[in-house]
Amino acid sequence: MIPTPTYKGKVRDVYDLGNSLLLVATDRISAFDVVFEEPVPDKGKILTRISTAWFHHFPEIANHLITDNVSLFPPPFQNNQSLEGRSVLVKKAKRIDFECVVRGYLTGSAWKEYKADGTIAHVPYPKGILESHKFETPIFTPARKNDSGHDENVSESTMEAEVGKELFLELKNLSLNLYNKAHALMAKQGILLCDTKFEFGLIDGKPILIDEILTPDSSRYWDGTTYELGKTPASFDKQILRNWLESTDWDKNPPPPALPESLILELRKKYLELEDKITLCLSQK
C-alpha cells in the first residue's frame, strides 16, 4: 500500500523520504497552470524515459538521479507495479527558485513580450523580427518560480542579484551548454529544439540538475521540415494542447474544458514519436 504523497503537483506526486525524494510522473496533463480531467495514457512513463535518458547522456553534469529501478526503491515503494516506469528516486536538494530557460528561437511568452514591448527578457531588440526567428546565438531568459500563480519572466540582472554573480554565471553557462549539445543532436533527426527550461538545486553548496530535462513538457520541439520564418512549426510537445486551447473561448481559469479524445491521442502519438527520435539520437554517440 502506497502512502499519500507528501506533495501533489500538477502532474507529479512527490514523496519525501528524508535525504531523498520519490518522484512519480502521473498521466495528468496541465496547461496555463490548470490540470485537466482527462489523462494522456502512458504520458508519465514516456516523460520519465526521456528525462532519464538525457540525464544518462550528460554524466559530466551532476544531477539528482539515484535510480529508476523500482526493485531498489525503499519500502513500501519497492517493486510496486504501479510505480514501474514512471518513478525515480532522487537526491534531495535545496531548490534554486528560478527556471533556467534557454531560447534558440523567438516564440511563446518571449514572442508575446517582443510584440508588446519590443523587448525579450526585458532586453530591447530591433524592430521587425518575425515569429520563429532563430537567434544568432541562443539566449538565456530566466523565470522566477512562484509557489502560486504563473512563473514570472525576469531579467538576467534580477536573477544575478538574487542568487549571486558566481552561481548565476555557472547556471547560465551550464544551461546554454546543455541546450547547444541537445539542439545539435536533435537537428540530426530533423527536430529543432526551440527552447527548454532547466531547474537546479544545491547540495553542499554545489548546483545539480533536478526535476526533468528536455522532455516535451519542459521543452518545445519543432518539426524541422515545417520550419518557416513568421509561422509556428508543427510541434512534438505540449504546445499541441496550448494551440487547441487558444482556439477555444476558454478564459484559462478553472474549470477547464473537456479535451477531445482525438487531441489526447494526438498528444500521445507525438510524445512517442519524439521519444523514438531522441532514443535514436542518443544511440548514435
Helical amount: 25-40%
What is the general shape? globular
Following the backbone from N to C, one meets helices and strands in this order, namely EEEEEHEEEEHEEEEEHHEEEHH
What distance separates the N and C termini? 41 Å
CATH class value of the largest domain: Alpha Beta
- Briefly note the structural class of the backbone: alpha+beta
Number of strands: 17
Domain tally: 2
**What's the average pLDDT?**
96
**Residue fraction in strands:** 25-35%
What's the CATH architecture name of the largest domain? 2-Layer Sandwich
The DSSP helix count reads 6
Q: What's the name of the CATH homologous superfamily of the largest domain?
A: ATP-grasp fold, B domain
Describe how the helices and strands are arranged.
Layout: E1 7-8, E2 12-16, E3 20-25, E4 30-31, E5 34-35, H1 43-57, E6 65-67, E7 87-91, E8 94-95, E9 98-105, H2 108-117, E10 119-120, E11 123-124, E12 134-140, E13 143-144, E14 152-153, H3 156-163, H4 165-187, E15 191-203, E16 206-210, E17 219-223, H5 239-246, H6 261-283
Antiparallel strand pairs: 1-2, 2-3, 3-7, 4-5, 6-7, 8-15, 9-12, 9-13, 9-15, 10-11, 13-14, 15-16, 15-17
Helix pairs in contact: 1-6, 3-4
Question: In words, what does this structure look like?
Answer:
This protein has 285 residues and is α+β, with helices and mostly antiparallel strands. It has 2 domains: 7-91, Phosphorylase Kinase, domain 1 (2-Layer Sandwich), CATH 3.30.200; 94-238, ATP-grasp fold, B domain (D-amino Acid Aminotransferase, Chain A, domain 1). It is 31% helix and 26% strand. The chain has 6 helices and 17 strands. It has helices at residues 43-57, 108-117, 156-163, 165-187, 239-246, 261-283, and strands at 7-8, 12-16, 20-25, 30-31, 34-35, 65-67, 87-91, 94-95, 98-105, 119-120, 123-124, 134-140, 143-144, 152-153, 191-203, 206-210, 219-223. The strands form 4 sheets. Strands 8, 9, 12, 13, 14, 15, 16 and 17 form an 8-stranded antiparallel β-sheet that branches. Strands 1-2-3-7-6 form a 5-stranded antiparallel β-sheet. A hairpin with a 7-residue loop joins strand 13 and strand 14 (152-153). Helix 1 (43-57) runs parallel beside helix 6. The longest helix is centred in the middle third of the chain and has 23 residues, at 165-187. It starts with 6 loop residues before the first strand and ends with a helix.
